[in-house]
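User: Quick sanity check before I run a bigger batch. Here is a single chain. Can you write out its predicted 3D structure?
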Amino acid sequence: MMDASVKRLFASYESFFNRFLQGEPDMTEAGELYAPEFIAASPTGVMTGRNDEEFRDNLIRGYDHYRAIGTRQMQVRDVRISPIEDLHCVAHVGWTATYLRRDGTDVDIDFEVHYLVQVLGGAAKVFGWVAGDENALLKQHGII
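Assistant: Done. Predicted structure follows.
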């Protein structure tokens, strides 16, 4: 049951992300992907937050940034699940992002994000994530 719920969550996440890139955001749907509180870690540090209006405003700014740097599509390549116990897991999600470079060529970039997921009543929600150095990867591929 956990595997199916988590895979549905990331299919929804992928769909939401791509609709947002096309200028069709549904902020209610965005809020449904995340737990009421969350934690995030990246090379810039660790932060905590709440799934509230400020978070949704930050999502809008973030997705606007992705569009501005030429992000065309995000695709889930793979979801590998490491159960922690019956209601929690780490979902290792392999993504492929397609970008339009400044020179007019497309480039696909593969990366992985590790999401902390809680499954309650059959519904999976992200309550945390650990990501690598996105800016370094984008610089390496000539996106920024």
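The chain has a mean pLDDT of 95.

User: Great, the batch can go ahead then.
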